[in-house]
Amino acid sequence: MKLQSLRRAASVTLAAASLVIGGAVSGRTADGSGHTDGSGQANGSDQRAAAAPVLRDLAAAKGIYYGTAVTASKLTGTYGTIVGEQFDSITPGNEMKWGSVEPTRGSFNWSGADAVVNYAEAHAQKVRGHTLVWHSQLPNWVSNGSWTADTLRTVMTDHIATEAGRYQGRIDHWDVVNEPFNEDGTRRQSVFQTAIGDSYIADALRAARAADPAAKLYVNDYNVEGVNAKSTALYNLVKSLKEQGVPIDGVGLQAHLILGQVPSTLQANIQRFADLGVDVAITELDIRTTVPPTTAQLAQQKAEYKAVTAACVAVSRCEGVTVWGFTDSDSWIPDVFPGYGAATPYDENFQPKPAYYGIAEALGWTDGGTNPPAGACAVTYTVQSQWNTGFTAQVTIRNTSTAAVNGWTLAWSWPAGQSVTQAWNATVTQSGSAVSAANAGYNAAIAPGASVTFGFNGSWSGGNTAPTAFTLNGTACTVS
Length: 480
Known about the structure:
alpha/beta, TIM Barrel, 8-stranded parallel beta barrel
């Protein structure tokens, strides 16, 4: 739907020289390959890594793909590692949109789009092309041009021929037309609708088929996840296009959702499109909540990610699910919806949240015991001393569950701009306000009822308010 907002600072690793990094990037097997035996369970000896689900493998076993939107410039480091290990389909968040590839008529910039496609091919991933014809993120020469139906149709189909033709045979699905409807089911008065009329969608689909006969062609929209006026308009469009012999292979349900508002008719809606003889995909899934989220909100978000994924699995013509960015550090939500965020399966420190495990469970994974149930950990945060620009803090993590924790990462966000300068008994990393503390080699295991403690020095200015929420291995803890 929207471009992904990039709200990141460079990640800085801060650790005492004596500390050993513990644990593993979620989804990485003990041998570093990131792939498993097909069951979604890794075969390595590291207990935490062995228990971590690999979404792409679990999805493949269910006959679907699980993907994420990406930013080309981020496909390195931890971000790139997780994308390659966990997902078997990627969507360029912005790099294939008209304004990105053809900002000036006849002048093209393919660097970002090429980078995404090349990355996907190097990691055995599908690519969802996004998007060829959309009312937004158009170059000025298109959105503000003086067009007749014929001249704009020619410009549109030439653009499709050029872009889809460049990647012929390398794109699995194209979002050919994006967001053609208003909320009441009437046509959005885009420059294409205004100048060309209703036929622009059929014209675009025919041009895309001519440019890349192998790619599956989709119409994609938001607020069409449940049965409502807008999704019914989309249904009627697809029905009409098929009756006319226009090439259309599927519909994309974006699924930019709000916590507590997942449509009860989601699966029935997927099924009714499938019954028309087209494929369906969840193309831009995120579930936003107020921030900071509570333990209960994270648990509900887990259940809702699980429900959306399960709805796709339940319908044979649902091709797969794509999350609109996998990490909260790369989400568009906070910039567009003030007071909301935490919408993705990973937190800002690239640690899996409960939602990640909800997805895995919908794909058939069962918890091996290393991810504590919600509320099964307690954190005590204490400032031991403080001076004009600095402070020393101690953090105690207690395992309140009945299962051992084998390898841990504790995450939190600073509420007042503090930063960690030195740490002991844990390896601490910080990116912006987001902080992640990983176990040392000697304190990775926390037995039921036991606790571990680490400490750090930090700097502050203006205020030193204590964090109010912590997650352990992606699960929210109580704070005492």
